[in-house]
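Morning run. Coffee first, then this:
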Amino acid sequence: MTVDDGARYVAIITDGNRRWARERNLPVGEGHRAAAENVLGRLRDAAELGVQELTIYAFSTENWERSDQEVSGLLALLAEYIDGVTPDLHAEGVRMRFIGDRGAPLPAKLVERMEWAEELTDANRRITFFVPFNYGGRAEIVRAAAAFDGGDEDEFARGLYAPEMHNPQLMIRTSGERRLSNYLLWQLADSELIFRDELWPDFSRRAFEESLAEYGRRQNRRRPGGFQGDPSGLG
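And here it is:
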């Protein structure tokens, strides 16, 4: 399966990691570690399936409200994975890009590792991997508004964290939750939304392919000659 006629720009909310750990009587940190491993697997799947940009929510501004132990574990896990996987991803042609607020309370050493990974992989073109970290959609819009001097939507979008990012055509959220959770609020304005019941560590390549196939079916309905439905969206 490929996405020649499908979603080239995909965003994912990786929900359900803590629940996955609790169901197995494991520490919460093990759920986040399993989640990170699954991110790598689905990133590689995305590259093989022809996705050009994959954006995966790693840490929201709201996550600072979690326990100190869980937050420090998440920060340490990101640093570990940046150091451990960046050379391999670089060899595989992955361009890495972190989006979000890089100021306090993010540790300066972590920001340095982010910048190192971005610089090392900047020339890669097989797939761009966007990682929202210390990210909030409303804060991003406020930031862009503060820099906006007037003009059209394209001018406004230049103030976003990653103005080069294409608007995702498809957003997938796992764990059965059906909300955006302050994620890419500007960019997801016209995206297809797919909600899956699997907890993120259980979201497999097959589940990813099924989501891409569902996106393709929805696009077929929107093409001339396909079922269009009520353009008002009310019936």
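The beta strands are 9-13, 53-56, 59-60, 94-99, 127-135, 170-173, 192-195. Good start to the day.
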